[in-house]
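Annex B.
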Amino acid sequence: MPELPEVEALAHHLREYAVGRTVARVDVASLQVLKTASPPWTELHGRTVTGAGRYGKYLDMDCDGLHLVVHLARAGWLRWADTMGATPPKPGKGPLALRVHLGPPGEGPGFDLTEAGTKKGLAVWIVSDVRQIPQIVSLGPDALSLTRDALADLLAGRTERLKNALTDQRLISGVGNAYSDEILHTAKLSPYATAGKLADPALDALHAAMQSVLTDAVSRSVGQAAARLKGEKRSGLRVHGRTGMPCPVCGDTVREVSFAEKAFQYCPTCQTGGKPLADRRMSRLLR
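Formamidopyrimidine-DNA glycosylase: predicted structure tokens.
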């Protein structure tokens, strides 16, 4: 899933290559992705792209006051091309959900919004004010905007596991499954620690790790072509997605805890005092 660093890099790419261009045409290949009906997508036609930004993991392209807002969900992506095909895509065929032409179709650049897999979560809104989108209104403060004291205030009294708190977009926006694993590993904290019971040194470490991990990832990602961002993300991860491999800090084997639809990774030596965390899925299989 694209998280704060990748979405920031995509916003930067649009600011560099899309701002100043005119939306010539929008092709919708999947009506399912559109979460708003009015104004229609055709209202974007003829508008100039005037800006691009980010709200947590939501990408916003400002078209002279009308916003195209995208949440890429788990398997969505933005694919930029210097020349887009002129033929409108056939609805329901393949991963393509929506195409934006930023110049004459067949001649100018643009981008596709695509989504792999059968479970669809890619979402697109067309609004005059981003505050019309409930999911954005409900976002917590951006992870990179938090001071140490603000983070402490957010976590105070919370009883959920730290891993769950970091990925709750209503509490802290921008951090997902991958970067929460990296932040917790860097801070040497257990994913199962209680969010509201961290001592001051742990809070210090958590805040420093959040800032360093995300800032480093943004620095690596911004300026990369959109097609290279996924690979850049994977190359910078130390524990996430590295189950069974040695921890680059201590050499212990990176372990995994699996749930119904996702998993997280951690290092027992660095994070849990050498004790593997219970994996309920594996426990059921061993009964």
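The radius of gyration is 20 Å. DSSP finds nine helices and ten strands in the chain. Further annotation is deferred to the next reporting cycle.
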